[in-house]
Amino acid sequence: MNCPCCSGKSYEECCKPYHSGEKHAPTAEALMRSRFSAFAIPNGEYLMETTLPGKRKYHNKKDLQEWGEINQWTKLEIIRTPALNHVEFKAYYTDQDGHPQVHHEFSVFQKMHKRWYYVSGEFLDEETD
How many Å apart are CA 16 and CA 88, to the nearest integer? Predict the structure, then answer.
């Protein structure tokens, strides 16, 4: 199966080793891609594990899992990585009502104990493009 993160690689050689805990994402962009794949599969457990521990109280594994399940995740587009710990992306999906949606976000990541974590994201308005 092609990896949902749109890397062009198979899932087995792309995001699966991160999801299984075999490896940790080496860059913020790799973590971002693996988190998109975790929504597509879905894998709420991985999404919680890769959220910065101090920020986990703002998230809920059940909600993350459900958001992955109710939407059909179709494409990830990395817009830019202006710094090692910043990734701007667009996640394309079809919502539960069958409407195409774009989630445009500027995300902040942090490396702690040799692992990358998602810290927060600023949602960007599509109309400003």
Answer: 22
